[in-house]
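REQUEST ID: PR-0412
SUBMITTED BY: lab tech R.K.
PRIORITY: routine
TASK: structure prediction, single protein chain
INPUT:
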Amino acid sequence: MNCLEVRDFSLHYTLNSGQLFRYVSFGDHYLIHAGSRLFKIWQKAGRIFFEGAAEEFISRFFRLDDDLEEIYRQINRDPFIGEAIDLYRGLRLIRQDPWECLVSFLCSSAKNIPHIKCILEGLCRHYGQPVSLGNYRGYGFPSPDQISEGRDLGRIKAGFRTRYLLEISGRTISMDLRALGRLEYRDAKKELMAFPGVGEKIADCVLLYSLDFNEAFPVDTWIRKAIHLGYHKGKNLTDRKIREFAQGYFSQYAGYAQQYLYHFVRNQGRK
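STATUS: complete
OUTPUT:
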């Protein structure tokens, strides 16, 4: 077991903010699949404890090097997002593997989270390699070539996404998606949207959750509601106008603002 002291970090808020799908919770403990890695993690006050992963990986995965106080200083511009920050302080963006992130959000289209998890678990069970941690057994995330060689992808019940999965995996076998991180935001987004089934929202999710484009601002139903309630009540803005407003208003950390607004409205809306 390893231990790491942390500041401005909430494991619970971070994992339950809609960024990541391949994890299960047992009380305050979480088992997380990330690529071919399976690790266990839990938090007690200002410390996190983990098994199955190195400290360097944990720090990078949960972006513990991000200066959250500086990020708050830049995005906390009004009472609406201020309330979101106060309620969910410590929520951080997760730095995922770009390939896994792309497939995960491709499968998220028009689906609720339990169904997304079911599709991804089926994909890993049928095409990934077995992994274990203590008594727990699971499956790593399949590589592009493992998916492209799948003979019966229909059994994971991905619906119309099946064709996209096959086409994208075939295209990325010889491609390093991390290289997109060296491009400008608009160019990287254009490259991702050239993949079948990848629209602006999925592209922005991949850019934000795996490639460190903090200005990316994914727009979905909850974000439309957040912008309507907090900033443009009575106006019916297009998704493009919402993105333009948010990136201008929140500037370089628009993606962090998006995550707080999304988590805030989704949870308060349910209440």
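NOTES: The mean pLDDT is 92.
REVIEWED BY: pending
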